[in-house]
Amino acid sequence: MIADFLSRLLQPNPAPMADSDARLALSALLVRIARSDHNYAAVEQDRIDRILIARFELDIGGAALLREEAEALEAEAPDTVRFTRAIKEAVPYEDRTGVVEAMWQVALADGERDAAEDALLRLATNLLGISDVDSARARKRIETQQ
Fold this sequence. Notes:
The chain is mainly alpha-helical. The protein has eight helices and no strands. InterPro entries: DjlA_N, TerB-like.
């Protein structure tokens, strides 16, 4: 399944993704952000699960399975551009700020700001078509919730 998903994701002009594929792409992007500081902590995995539960109305088992699939996909995927392109095509602009908030939730889950996570977040946010200002607002909203 991962190989099939990757082959569709890596096509020069991929077709728009089904909702299940967009879910997997978003989940893999969250995993990539969590892993970007080379410390994929349990608190980050838990935060990803909670985001998946809330965003996709999954139970804890379904969220854990989706995260595990995303971990495998993230490990094999060559770049972040393909994930963000799939998300950008599947998620309306007005809802992409929620995607950025989810990315900040994961990046801040361990209580530390990391330069690698910040850099990946800036790249992904830009590729999603969200401004740095809107990303900063999303980060502030998440920081006040934690």
